[in-house]
Amino acid sequence: MHPPCTVCMGLDKECSKYCVYRRGFPPNEKVIEFSRVKYLLNMDNVYMNLLKLYHSIDQGDYEIYVRSLIHETTCRYDENLHGAKGIYDRDVGQARQAQKLVEDQLAAGQTVLHAIREEGLKLSEQIHIKETQLKAAGIQIPK
Ligand SMILES: [Zn+2]
User: Fold this and answer.
1) What family is reported (predicted)?
2) Is the predicted pLDDT of residue 82 greater than 90, yes or no?
3) Which of 81, 97, 125 is the last residue of a domain?
């Protein structure tokens, strides 16, 4: 009984001791790396490329391919690059932030406007009282 390699385990496939994916992803190794490869890249292409390369290039190059595959997906994962969907999510997030900023500034502006209007009403009320007092005292207000 052979434990399945990480690729077969991740794709829920039968695995034998002759499985070609064992060389790049031995059992219980590079599990996180493989889950990123599976998540970020087109798995059908990766699966076929690994298979093709296994038969067409020497072992050293095959291991370089697996390392570069892991490196690429680690970079994409760390940099939070998820292709078009990642760009869409980032842009939508920025647009929502900008919208919230505008709404907050609008609300702050309305608060200031309200305070100015209240102050203006108080001042015109005080002017009216003064004019009434001056009129009562018989003093002419120059126009
Ligand atoms: Zn396998």
Assistant:
1) Belongs to the LOB domain-containing protein family.
2) no
3) 81
Please check whether residues 71 and 92 belong to one and the same domain. Answer: no
Q: pLDDT at residue 136 above 90?
A: yes
CA–centroid distance, 25 to ligand 1, in Å, is: 8
pTM over 0.90: no
Count Cβ atoms below 10 Å from residue 30 Cβ, excluding itself.
Answer: 18
State in Å: Cα 10 to ligand 1 middle: 9
The torsion region of residue 140 among left (phi > 0), alpha (psi -120 to 50) and beta comes to beta
Structural domain containing residue 25: 1-81
Is 96 in the same domain as 107?
yes
pLDDT above 90 as % of the chain: 43
CA dihedral 76, 79, 80, 85 (to 10 degrees): -70
Same domain, 35 and 72: yes
Q: What is the pLDDT averaged over residues 50-66?
A: 80
Tell me the CA–centroid distance for residue 17 and ligand 1, in Å: 8
Q: Which amino acid is at 121?
A: L
Which residues does 38 contact at the CB level (< 8 Å), separation at least 6?
A: 10, 11, 46
